[in-house]
Design goal:
seven-stranded parallel beta sheet; about 15% strand; globular; 13 helices; about 350 residues; single chain; alpha/beta; six-stranded parallel beta sheet; 2 domains; Rossmann fold
């Protein structure tokens, strides 16, 4: 078996990249590989200052070379894809010049107007590029970079959370509770989510922190709400949060994937979603979701739920997005990368 390093800006947290990297770590470990996480933030096995998203440039080449010297394979999570620390990206290119590496792309700079001027990911005979959506695959193909498609995968039968205990801790009684299980940043459009909850007559529960200097804008949005909303982390687990909710809301303008979409399915909750571009790729499998711009249809469903929708959605997720299938796909990926 191989020694594998997982490298990113931050690891071990609740952001999407950290969550998907942890799934890969567990699957690779189950296959018998020795895996170590290295990042500039979060809770990695090795924390290296200067590797964070917005860290000031400092000398990193010597420390990264030393940290990675005994690994057979390096998997880079989103640093090459979304260069929010361009100094780190260039350093990794140099350190990995003659090393076998997998670049796992969750977002691409080409999708961000503020970063579109930056060079796309480089290709190299020893490097394998992996994307999580067809849109990214087409963008990379357009600049001459081939890639493999591996969509995010999910636990199909997650633990049952505690609905009554969680709602009690939140002080929610009979009101409809709409869950916004994400960070508060501009592209996730929390204003759209809150407008939906107002129209539905629901209490909105926002789980994530405010990030990316969005504090003032969010304060203005929050000040104009006609319905109550909660902004706090779950008193229990994420499974408790889904169990306590009646509706899940994904209001994003853009997502590289959008994990809460499938998580709403595995937790058997109706999803109100704005049609961001990658959603079309997910919808092509046949899922049934609700339009966030049509609260009346959601209101009718909540008054008279149809459990068959949940079961049909779950069957689709089990076939196409099952976490149990991840080890076999990673086994093939690692073998392919190491054969280069």
């Amino acid at each position: 078996m191989s020694r594998i390093a997982l490298v990113s800006y931050r690891l071990g947290g609740t952001d999407g990249v950290s969550i998907e990297a942890e799934k890969w770590r567990r699957a690779l470990t189950a296959l018998g590989h020795e895996v170590r996480t290295i990042a500039g933030g979060g809770q990695p096995d090795l924390l290296i200052p200067g590797m964070g998203m917005y860290d000031e440039p400092i000398e990193l080449e010597a420390s990264l070379t030393h940290a990675l010297e005994n690994f057979d394979l390096v998997i880079v999570e989103n640093v090459i894809s979304l260069p929010l620390n361009e100094h780190l990206r260039q350093t990794l290119y140099r350190v990995l010049e003659n090393r076998v590496a997998i670049f796992h792309h969750h977002d691409l700079a080409m999708d961000r107007s503020s970063l579109g001027h930056l060079a796309p990911p480089r290709k190299h005979p020893l490097w394998t590029h992996v994307v999580i959506n067809e849109h990214s695959q087409k963008l990379l193909n357009g600049v001459g970079v081939g890639s493999l498609l591996m969509r995010n995968r999910f636990e199909i039968n997650p633990p049952h959370g505690s609905r009554e205990e969680t709602r009690g801790a939140l002080g929610v009684s009979d009101q409809v509770l709409a869950l916004f299980p994400s960070r508060i940043i501009e592209r996730k459009n929390p204003a759209r989510a809150l407008r939906f909850s107002n129209q539905l007559g629901a209490t909105m529960w926002i789980l994530g922190d405010v990030e990316d200097s969005y504090d003032e804008e969010f304060a203005e949005v929050a000040a104009g709400q006609s319905q109550p909303f909660l902004h706090r982390r779950s008193p229990g687990s994420i499974h408790d949060a889904y169990a306590a909710s009646d509706v899940v809301v994904v209001s994003s303008n853009w997502e590289g994937f959008g994990n809460p979409v499938i998580e709403s399915v595995t937790h058997r909750r109706p999803l109100a979603v704005h049609s961001y571009p990658i959603l079309h790729e997910i919808m092509q499998y046949g899922f049934a979701f609700f339009d966030i711009h049509d609260p009346e249809t959601m209101r009718r469903f909540l008054a008279k739920p149809n459990p068959a929708i949940f079961e049909a959605n779950l069957g689709i997720a089990a076939e196409h997005f099952n976490l149990e299938d991840l080890p076999k796909h990673l086994e093939a990926l690692v073998a392919f990368a190491l054969s280069n």
